[in-house]
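pinned: reference chain
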Amino acid sequence: MHVRVLGALHVEQDGVDITPSAHKPRQILSLLALNSNRVVPNAGLMEELWDDNPPRSAVTTLQTYIMQLRKSMAGAMEVPTSVVVKENLITTPGGYLLRLPPESIDLHRYETLDARGRDALDADDVAEAVRLFDEALRLWHGTALVDVPPGPLLQREIVRMEEARFGTIEKRIEANLRLNRHSEMLGELRALCMEHQLHESLQAQYMICLHHCGRRDEALAAFRTLRWSLIKELGLEPSVKLQRLHRAILADDPILHRTPSFFRLPPAHAGTPERAKTPTPVSVNATEKEGGERARGKPSRRRKAQHRRRRG
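pinned: its C-alpha cells
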C-alpha cells in the first residue's frame, strides 16, 4: 500500500486507488496511516470522529468503518478479508494497527529527506542541502490532508506537518542564501513575507536579500514596516539581533558583504549587551509613533508567546 498525506489523501494498493470517498473512513485511514505500525486506541479514533459527543452506537459504527476499509484493501489485493485482518489492518486489544513499510507513506520520505538536508547544512555541504530540501518539498502537493475534514487528533497532526514544511522552507532559503543566490530568492521571500508579516527571521532574510541586490532603501523600509506591525499587533520591538541587522544596513557595514544569511550574522561585539532595554531608534513618522504608543496597551499574551517561538 502507498499513502499520500502531503496534499490530498490518496491511498493505492497494488496499483488500485482505494481512497475512501466518505468523510469518516477518510479520517480513520488518515489517522491510522500517520500512526502506522503503532496502535491507535479506539478512544482516540472515536474522539477524532465525534469529538466529545459520540453516539450511543459509536463502537459498532467504528467497527463498520474498519470493516469497509478492510474490504477495500482485500479487493485490491485479491485476497480474503481474513488476510487483511491478520496482516494489514489488525485488531489489537483496545484499538487498531495499520501495518505499513515506512517508505510507503510520503510523510516518512519527506521527513527522511529533511533530516538529511539539515545534516548536510550543518556539515557545510550547502549545495547538497539545497538538493535534499528541494526534493523533500517536491513531495508536497498542497496543504496536508487538504480534502479530509479533520477532527481534533488529525487537526494536531496537520498543524505539525505544516510547521515542519515551513521549517524546511526556511532551511532551504538559508542554504540558497549561503550560496549567494540572493536575486533568485528575492521573489519567493517577498511572497512569504507578505504572508507572514510578523515572522522576524523571514523578514530579516528578505532585508539581507534586498541589501545584497543593491536595494538598501527597500531593506530599510522593510524594517520600518516590520517594526510598525510588531508594535501595532503585539506591543513588541524587533529582536535585538534584528535591530543590529538594521543598524548594519544603515551604516552599510562591510560585515554584510560577508554575511549571506541572517543566521550567519556574527554575534554582537564583545562588551555589547545582547539584550537592550532601550529600543533602537527607527525613522517613523509622527502618526506611526503616536499609533505605536496606543498599540502598546494590552497585546494578547498568546500572540506574544507564539511570536517569540517563531523569532529567529
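why pinned: Strands lie at 2-4, 10-13, 16-17, 39-41, 89-92, 95-98. The mean pLDDT is 87.
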